[in-house]
């Protein structure tokens, strides 16, 4: 059996060997070469479909090279984690001491769930050492702006809310997807966004990594949203977009494991958003702004806003297990969370129309339910809201069942039997810790007025 310590002794060096940017018939191909000395080499690629895009900056200019080099440092984590070598050697570029600290912070926190679930005890200082020359130079800014905005579309309720808030900007918006799925395309269509203004990318995993996974090498969660950050930045550079508008809520800042810093959503957190902004300014030299329009809000507020957008209800999907089939599986924590957080704002009939059944009446989901609502100390490892938000949503839903003279579903009854009503109302909250530029403030003020209106009392 492979262990963290035995693998590190056997395979002491991981290398980021090279990267390349190539024009291909579909658009632009980004290629990366990694290796674990004495084990194997990896050659993942990403295609950006640019043929329908108004490209106004050179695909391989110095700033473009700096972005792709950095993207490789994020992509590398997926391959590094197979053996977690104590040395990470960069053979295709340089990093200052401050940059090395920046990358170690991202890798360590982004691998927090991976370390926790694999029972690995290590520290940010000790898990790896970055070896490379330190004479890094930030490229001269060669950016031509087009006035466009990029909105990453994941196919869930959050990006739908962002697109709805930005309807006045729709002629300037380009959607952005990684490994496109029907829910993402359908969300763009529902927002009135022409598919010629959806930037599609296809990211592939090297089969060697899948082989190592089958052979029992280390595996687990990596900071995927950091890949989205650098890949969307490269696309923003190509089309001259000045804003990358995310849909990450304040709830993403909460740790997944109570009393720890382990956060499944670390690369969606405000900490990463702020760090990424600093990195783009200091080491890539671009004026592009990267911010979440929904950071001032929590999951419950976003759910209320989404409930008022019926054009998205039939097309949105957040279930990872059912993503390839474009379905809600109805068996996972993500399905249960989305059902629960929407339950105060949509009727049981409407929710059955979306999910096919009442998920709060499925005793088989009790373990996930206990994590969601705080009966258990560890939340499910999914992109979900805080325990307090779920508790408040469940209390509102229970009150509605009671007012209608209906018996409580089995999971809802379990919660009401074990928990008093939580203090505070998430619908009245507002998170001041955000990076929303002044030009976009009217959109969040509009949402704040709606979600706070009468607080559903």
Shape: globular
Mean pLDDT: 95
Q: What's the count of strands?
A: 11
Percent range of helical residues: 25-40%
| Poorly predicted regions | none
Q: Termini distance?
A: 57 Å
How large a portion of the residues is in β-strands, by DSSP E?
5-15%
Number of domains: 2
Continuous helix count: 16
What gyration radius follows from the Cα positions, in whole Å?
22 Å
Quaternary assembly? single chain
Main beta sheet:
11 strands, mixed
Order of helices and strands: HEEEEHEHHEEHEHEHHEHEHHHHHHH
Structural class: alpha/beta
Per-chain topology:
Layout: H1 4-10, E1 13-24, E2 27-36, E3 40-42, E4 45-49, H2 62-80, E5 87-90, H3 97-110, H4 112-117, E6 129-131, E7 149-152, H5 157-165, E8 173-178, H6 182-190, E9 198-203, H7 207-214, H8 224-239, E10 243-246, H9 270-284, E11 289-292, H10 299-307, H11 333-342, H12 348-355, H13 366-373, H14 387-403, H15 410-418, H16 441-452
Parallel strand pairs: 1-5, 5-6, 7-8, 7-10, 8-9, 10-11
Antiparallel strand pairs: 1-2, 2-3, 2-4, 4-9
